[in-house]
Design brief:
Bound molecules: adenosine-5'-diphosphate, magnesium ion
Strand order of the largest sheet: 1-7-6-2-5-4-3
Order of helices and strands: EHEHEEEEE
Number of helices: 2
Low-confidence stretches: 152-159
Number of strands: 7
Strand content: 25-35%
Structural class: alpha/beta
Mean pLDDT: 89
Largest sheet: 7 strands, mixed
Length: 159
């Protein structure tokens, strides 16, 4: 999946898309979620974490005040929210070294607040508030970390 754009009309639809995405990820992957407050970054994360199989979606809450949440029922996912960190921080001073230490799935809200140094493949997702319950989601999978939907019929099949 190189790039994809979709519109959702409810938080449940956004969660459902996240679930599908999460179930198709090839770790390690660093997922950078951008978009204004209320755009749906945390809502999408609920679906991704549940799709990866690290927690149920209702167990996923915003790490705005704690900076990072770790979910590890089975697979492991770190969910980081950098909204409140301010300037002049890096992963080390924030105590986030563990997050990228072992290959896995790491989801970051407000990624532009920090320079993230990693050689992990990056999946960029932009969320835009279109209307009350409508969001536009743009996924850019330049590194090919999302498996194609139907493995049996797609280009994944050996020639
Ligand atoms: P962010 O993490 O980007 O600040 P949240 O996911 O915390 O945003 O909040 C998004 C809010 O918008 C939630 O209250 C959610 O229920 C609501 N919402 C309404 N429609 C949608 C939609 N289509 N997709 C995602 N969230 C939606
Ligand atoms: Mg959030």
């Amino acid at each position: 999946m190189a790039s994809r754009e979709l519109v959702t009309n409810s938080s449940e639809e956004t969660i459902q898309f996240g679930r599908e995405l999460g179930s198709r990820l090839k770790p390690p992957v660093l997922i950078l979620l951008s978009g204004e407050l209320g755009a749906g970054k945390t809502t999408l994360t609920k679906g991704i974490v549940s799709g990866v199989g690290a927690a149920r979606e209702d167990e996923v809450t915003s790490p705005t005040f704690t900076l990072v949440h770790k979910y590890e029922q089975g697979a492991r996912v770190y969910h980081v929210d950098l909204y409140r960190i301010g300037d002049f921080h890096d992963l080390e001073t924030l105590g986030l070294e563990d997050v990228l230490a072992e290959p896995g799935v790491v989801i970051v809200e407000w990624p532009d607040k920090l320079t993230l140094r990693t050689d992990w493949p990056i999946l960029r997702i932009q969320l835009e508030h279109v209307a009350e319950d409508t969001r536009k989601i743009t996924v850019r999978d330049e590194s090919g970390v999302v498996n194609s939907r139907d493995r049996a019929t797609s280009e994944d099949r050996a020639p």
